[in-house]
Amino acid sequence: MAADLTAPAPGIRARQDTAEAARTNSGVWTALARIASTSIILIALFAAAILIVVPAATGSKTYTVLTNSMAPKFPPGTFMVMKPVAFENIQHGDVITFQLHSGRPEVETHRVVGFSATQQGEKTLLTRGDNNGANDPDPVRAIQVQGEMFYAVPYVGFVANALGNSDRNTWTIIAAVALIGYGTITVYKSVRKGRAGNRTAEAQA
């Protein structure tokens, strides 16, 4: 009976199986590294966008919730971006940031629950914290309004507050660049490692 000359020898077959397994493992790790690196880059870009780019592009102001007055929807540490709004466009249910006293730095972020007017006929807003049982004691005048809520991000405000307004943009940019650089380097290394693994597997075959 003639021998099967087309079948690989046991040693050759083992090397082929090893090479194939190496190529498979290399491909899996390369794919995982790319996914992780891409995720890091996207997170960095998202953070830079919500903390710097969007507020700057829209002329918005940023604030951090410090109390439980707007809980549970906006707990302490919530980062809030307040966009400019015309006083006459403010509606019932809008969340606004306003000065407690005109011209002073102290502000509050509460929801509009009604409208009123001064004795001189000037329109004012009635506000209340979502977690409060009563309206704020003083109506809000147009000159006090700092903005209407554009969007809010939970817990990011703790970090923003720790950095301070002047340092926040600088540190956010540094962190974003660092993360993007790290992600890019990781992708590059994973691609090189994958190619090296494939060459090794082919050589072993």
CATH homologous superfamily assignment of the domain at 58-163? Umud Fragment, subunit A
**Beta-strand percent range:** 15-25%
Overall residue-averaged pLDDT value = 80
Q: From the 3D structure, determine the CATH topology of the domain at 58-163.
A: Umud Fragment, subunit A
Q: Cα-atom Rg, whole angstroms? A: 29 Å
The coarse silhouette is elongated
Order of helices and strands: HEEEEEEHH
The residue fraction in helices comes out at 40-55%
If you had to describe this structure to a student in words, what would you say it looks like?
The protein is an alpha+beta fold and 205 residues long. It has a domain at 58-163: Umud Fragment, subunit A (Ribbon). The protein has helices spanning 10-58, 156-163, 165-204; strands at residues 61-64, 79-83, 95-99, 107-117, 123-128, 145-153. It has a six-stranded antiparallel β-sheet with strand order 1-2-6-3-4-5. The protein is elongated.
